[in-house]
User: Fold these one by one.
Assistant:
Number 1:
Amino acid sequence: PQISSKFLLSDFSPLVRYMYGFDSKNNSFAINPSQPPLLRTLQLFPTVGLQLSRSTQIRFWDENGILYNSAGGGWFVPLDAMVTHSINKHLLFAVGASKPVVQTFQSYDWSIYGKISIRF
């Protein structure tokens, strides 16, 4: 039997960043008086791309990553998936959605997004 030269895993591009700044939604004294006024969040994006066809990919944790709120404690772990389709070498369309599976602090309930990418 002939072995296909196609691989399902197209890329793995992890990103880790630490954000420090203001967040009126999660660090408001009216909502939670025990939290400090500054946002301190560790963001993890274990981005994985799987090639479904020559021009179509499904990507996980590309737009919405895993969050750890170091200011007030707690994790926010969403299941984030985006389907991308290249029309040609210059134009790409994508649609995705995200839903939390672990939510010990509030970030969002659902997220639906899309993008158009033009390369030149």
Number 2:
Amino acid sequence: MNKTNILQQIIAEQDKTINNLSSSIEKYKMASDLDENNTLDPEDFSHQGEAMDMKMRLEQLLVKETRNKEIIEKCLNLDNKVVELGALVDLDIKYLFVGASTHTLKADDKEIYTISEDAPIYHSIKGKKVGDKIELGNLHFVIKDIK
């Protein structure tokens, strides 16, 4: 288990998410900023409010995803021995990263689940060490390694 490589993979996925959000925001910005003289169809103006709302939602999501990336980057150099912020936990058939919640990825033929310190499950696994048992949903795991 190479923590740096796995976190770099998560960061690369965050970069894709951030780029996609930025691109979508730009499209909604153009759709919400129509010039009356350049628009032939008056119905286009009826969608300006919707486009502005969507743009604002996406901007909030962009801020959140950017913060998540910053958290993950700060965790790159942490050497964890217990489940805490920055820990990459090997559960034999999957990895669990504690830092920021992102979508599930794959590395070393294992799924990588990510959670933040705000996740309800975090409080039940915080401080666990190699060899300890944890429960995720209705599944039970033994911690094989922590980096």
